[in-house]
Amino acid sequence: MTHSLHRRGDYEDLKDDFVVLGCPATGVNKKGSAPKTQKFLSICYKHGPVNLGDMKTGNIHNTTMADILERVTDGTIVECTFDNRDKIVSLLKDLKENRPGISVIISGVTDVVQQCMKEAGLGPIHSLEYSLGTWGQTDRLPEYEVLKTTTMCGHAMIATDLVGKMVRDVKRGRRTVEDCCKEMAECCTCGNYNLTRGEKLFRELLKLYTIKNLY
Fold first, then answer.
1. Contacts of 53 (CB under 8 A, 6+ apart)
2. What is the pLDDT of residues 186-196, one digit of tens each?
């Protein structure tokens, strides 16, 4: 899915960042897919995602798992975010044994995803989709270190100004890093924001700014 392809970061930074999507296909298995999607979500939830949700209902940081499952309908696309490869290998083994009946897409570093598939006893990656980067007036983009955070929400629901406010609030002792990242996770309705990576990036971001020069 294209909205999870544009995450910024280097190899080391992204190798433990995975978004797993469950997606029924229109004209193939969309009709009657709700129970299959619920099964997929339930399997993913067992393996400890740091975020999980769908764009219409919300994610586990702003609603409940029960609410997400209850609101799944035919055609619902869901996303589950994981913070390490061991969870992905375990999840793939489970999905291989208990096939939910919908398409499963993993967004992550290609060779790491392929390694996980091999360990799970699956074959080569079926197909690949790449991000070609950002085109146009790129000088209007936020700083790269800020983009690392905002691009974890593929629908751009984490605003640059919000990140700046969060940094100011922590610098002034008003909030904790954990509290700020939890709020950003709540903003990313579909559940793509990786809370574990988010806290790490946010602590790195704090080192780059003083109150006077903070955007």
1. 59, 60, 63, 68, 78, 79, 189, 190, 191
2. 999 999 999 99
